[in-house]
């Protein structure tokens, strides 16, 4: 294992943060996997899972079983990790700008297309190599304007040439679920099975360029642009990027983290990136559904939230999910599932303000448009 330090742009006199990446295996000897944890710095289950992954990857490297390179960033956001206000960690939004740490990553499809135009041929593998070289060069030309920009740029540079990108997050109170690009679902399905994911949310564009879509969506956009100018030129979708939501914020547990690390290693073995026989594929807990079919249940008035159903349970249309109880007026509003689906996330707090989302259900019907992710 090699540990590398990446200094970030200094935000103030006498202050500088850095990112640390851990590198296993041999670059160029096979595929590349990039895994990062806690980009939202108040989401800590991924950081513990990364610690367990480190132990497993160290052992696999010593045994000579890594076929390629694995880059692990066990703590992807030193900026957010240091944002504690009145005893509360604020790791989702950068305090200086208010921007979400998992939004606004560089969209370089047009820049790279211009750079490789006329240089791609009939060899798909050679085309992928040329595109990755152009992408790495385009990222190297970006001059970060502040610390947040330099964090985003550094993470993109570490992941730019990866075949598989796994971004470890968690939700408030949730069953384990994941997000990926719609065309990548066949490649992602084994991962969902090994992880026991309760919901698989698919989109081609969810809005505001989150990290995973900046990695995988780049290839989809480039493929579309190349096809419009040179239809016979093959440009495969060469990065499977997945956001894995490791349940909820309070699921920081050794047993669960070890289970999730084992599932990720099983998936990498299934893909041939780790030598050995992969475990048999478990059943898929719930079918993949469109992110546009994620149904938020909203509180009609303020009150105490009392849930009827746990995250990770299937619900039928009309099932009671939660009560919103106003003890002053004595009113109770029961939130029911408008459609059948998987109750994959609940609000962690038990007090609702008017209009606040209380729970989300993954349904098969794509009915939402516009930006599909919450802030």
Automatic annotation (TrEMBL):
Domain of life: Bacteria
Sorted UniProt keywords: Hydrolase, Metal-binding, Zinc
A Pfam family reported for this protein in Swiss-Prot or TrEMBL: AstE_AspA_cat
UniProt GO MF annotations: hydrolase activity, acting on ester bonds; metal ion binding
Entry protein name: Succinylglutamate desuccinylase
CDD domains per the UniProt record, alphabetical: M14_PaAOTO_like
Required cofactor(s): Zn(2+)
Limits of the Succinylglutamate desuccinylase/Aspartoacylase catalytic domain: 30-108
